[in-house]
Amino acid sequence: MVWPCTLGVDAYTAGGRGVEFPRLPCPACAGPLVWWSGYRRWVRWAGGSRRIFVPRLRCGPCQATHALLPAFVLAWRLDAAETIGAAIAQVASGRCGVRPAAERAGVPYTTARGWVRRFRVRAVVLGTAFAALAAELGGEPAVPAADPGRFAVEAVGAAFAAASSLPGWLAAGAWRFASAAVGGRLIAANIISPFLVVGRRRFMPPVPPLPA
Ligand SMILES: [Zn+2]
Q1: DSSP state of 37
Q2: Which residue among 15, 55, 106, 187 sits deepest, i.e. has the most Cβ atoms within 10 Å of its Cβ?
Q3: 98 in Cβ contact with 91 (< 8 Å)
Q4: Tens digit of pLDDT for each residue in 175-187?
Q5: Residue 194 pLDDT
Q6: How far is residue 128 from each of residues 23, 70, 116, 170, measured CA to CA in Å?
């Protein structure tokens, strides 16, 4: 699970176990979660590595445990969501190629290329889901562009613009918002999480039509 953390990466890192973590319901059964344990993981941010604390929570009713990730991380990725999202947005919207985006992000070319490729593979699913989310939240629907990557970036932007009127999201920024909505799996190899989650609201993303 991902929560819409608005703390800076360094403030979160310094906070350790003392960060004010939100009380969220179990994503499986909506039961109450209690503190269970936690672990540390690395995040690469602003040219350095930070070791952050991630709480693990346990559900009383269904016994499942869930890691509670801050929205500035993506599942199984070292770099922060903002870094990855900015690089993807630059390339997918046609503003620059992968190499300058990689340089700005401070990562090897192959790393940025991997992000962009993974995003493109998922672009139709992500674009459809975020465009629907934008409409659900009362925003302007994103119009499908000829290029699926560009459409997906615009749909994330439209959904974020719509969510910005809800408490807490504006300060989180577009890519933390996107990470939180898909449970950190923006560019994960497995499919999109079955729900988009915005705060306590859950949305079932539509299934895009199969390519002709
Ligand atoms: Zn549960």
Answers
A1: E
A2: 187
A3: yes
A4: 999 999 998 989 9
A5: 58
A6: 30, 25, 18, 22
